[in-house]
Amino acid sequence: MWREPAQRISERALSLWRIYGAIQAGITLLVSIAVGGAVYFWNWPEWLLAIAASIILIELILSVWLIPDLRWKRWRYEVTEQDIELQHGIFIIQRTLVPMVRVQHVDTEQGPLLRKYRLSTISISTAATVHKIPALDEQEAEELRRSISSLARVAEDDV
Question: Is the pTM above the cut of 0.85?
Fold first, then answer.
């Protein structure tokens, strides 16, 4: 059996992801209101309102309560001298191993909601793609960014 990476992201990510889910549900609500207007003004079938209400309810349950919990439980990472291991996914768990010698640079990102919850996202760039570790505590993200940068320089010197 394989061993999971040891580190978890911040538990405050749950609140953040629930807000993202509520925003998404709010957009769906606006579309549903437009459908309601079409039903009222253009005599569209009323069963469209029932479908729109069902979609909003399902989206609220999934994107505000269920998915953030599952997502947080699955998100793990671990940084060693040789590589960075990432694990995430809800139904399909994806595991990624990034060798330190492939790391080109490391950034931290912080939008308005991340800043409100004192969280940051780390972006690890390689020649092929960018890997992200979301919703880390600000201080932990800064320490991790410096650590990965330092380890990547050491790994590059060893080549």
Answer: yes
